[in-house]
Design goal:
With 400 residues, the chain is of the alpha+beta class. It contains ten helices and twelve strands. A hairpin with a 2-residue loop joins strand 4 and strand 5. The radius of gyration is 36 Å and the shape is elongated. It starts with a strand and ends with a strand.
């Protein structure tokens, strides 16, 4: 059968719709009013019975058969219902109206097929069938109910496609996270051993020729970078599977911040890092994770700033909220990139070829801050510099 109309049978309004569409298809084919009425009434009787028992019915109207004998045909499919069979009154009456009536069951569904012959004088062929189908595809709804029904069906279709896309994306992310977890754990052990041997060479570097000592320093530096990348991969993996834990404690924030910035100032001695704190407070934090936040922000500031440039770290407390800012005079970030910098694996195209990285640092940083009940954001002007902010709730403010 070539389907021309498809109608879901959910309520009594669909009976009216089914009857009108049957009449319209019969009229378009060229059947007499009597034939149209007989067939439409048979379809309506079957549809009425189906709707009385279930709301999962589906009606297909079309043209069946082949040259030279074509038929106007209808197929109604619905879920199998106990006690409902060919002998039901509605089905019995429909059988008296159409010459061809078939009731069958298949895999938990009932299928009713009805057909009535189309006279050869109407000259139906495949071209005309295609034209009739095209006509109804372009035809508007017959009433307000059908218009709403069509909109609902379209919405269901779009929603279904979106759900499939979401499921597909979820599966890809799960596979990616599984790979990241396995890869980072497999790399951790050989890297730890490599780092240990590198440290042994560093301790003995004075006994080597200068050119070998230089190679040892580079080896140690690159091993440290690779170790940091693997650690980031492991952090991301733990975040995704929910095992990224915290050990929080009440910490006076100013001395903690001063200690971390002093340590980082030595690590990034090629830049002038300054710290100003207007007042002290107590925050409930995981020291190591918050140190990781500051390390990532200072590391980015030095990475994208000229050697010797100033990096200002400021801390203020307003209404039980402590806010830290890290301001640099580096490359700056475009407005477009600012909207995505905290996303996992995001890297701006302008720095992908000039600055190494995997785009995980800010994602991890933002996750840590948010998990501490805080917020993180950034402001930037290209060519002038960037300022990264994060805020945390205070347990208390320490008066001077």
């Amino acid at each position: 059968m070539t389907e021309i109309i498809n109608i879901t049978l959910e309520n009594e309004m669909d009976l009216v719709l089914a009857h009108r569409r049957c009449m319209a298809v019969g009229e378009r084919i060229g059947l007499t009013i009597a034939t149209q009425t007989s067939f439409s009434t048979a379809v309506s009787e079957v549809a009425r019975t189906v709707i009385e028992h279930t709301n999962t019915g589906n009606l297909q109207l079309g043209i069946g058969g082949s040259h030279p004998r074509f038929t106007m045909a209808a197929t109604i499919v619905f879920e199998e219902v106990d006690g409902l069979d060919r002998g039901d009154n509605g089905f019995f009456y429909a059988q008296k109206l159409v010459p061809e009536f078939l009731f069958k069951r298949s895999e938990g569904s009932c299928i009713i097929e009805m057909a009535i012959g189309i006279p050869r004088s109407l000259k139906i062929d495949r071209t005309r069938i295609a034209d009739i189908k095209k006509y109804f595809l372009a035809d508007g709804p017959v009433n307000a109910y059908e218009e709403i029904k069509n909109q609902k069906n379209h919405l269901y279709k779009v929603t279904g496609q979106q759900e499939l896309e979401i499921q597909h994306e979820k599966l890809i992310n799960e596979k990616k996270n599984e790979f990241i977890s396995i890869a980072s754990h497999e790399m951790k052990t050989p890297l730890t051993i490599l780092k240990a041997y590198t440290q042994m060479l560093v301790k003995e570097r004075e006994g080597f020729e200068p050119r070998f000592a230089n190679v040892i320093d580079k080896l140690d530096l690159q091993t440290s970078k690779l170790t940091a990348l693997v650690k980031q991969l492991m952090d991301v993996s733990q975040m995704e599977n929910g095992s990224f834990g915290y050990r929080r404690e009440q910490v006076p924030f100013r001395p903690f911040l001063s200690e971390v910035i002093d340590m980082l100032s030595q690590a990034y001695s090629a830049h002038a890092i300054s710290l100003s704190v207007d007042s002290d407070s107590v925050v409930n934090i995981d020291r190591l994770r918050m140190e990781q936040v500051l390390t990532n922000l200072l590391g980015n500031a030095t990475k994208y700033s000229p050697l010797g440039s100033a990096i200002d770290v400021r801390c203020s407390v307003v209404e039980s909220t402590v806010t830290v800012s890290v301001r640099d005079k580096g490359l700056g970030i475009s407005t477009e990139a600012l909207a995505s910098i905290f996303e996992k694996f995001y890297r701006d195209k302008s720095v992908m070829t000039t600055h190494p990285g995997l785009g995980m640092g800010l994602y991890i940083t933002s996750k840590i801050v948010v998990d501490h009940g805080g917020k993180i954001w950034a402001e930037s002007v290209e060519g002038i510099g960037s300022t990264f902010y994060f805020s945390l709730p205070c347990s208390s403010v320490i008066s001077e």
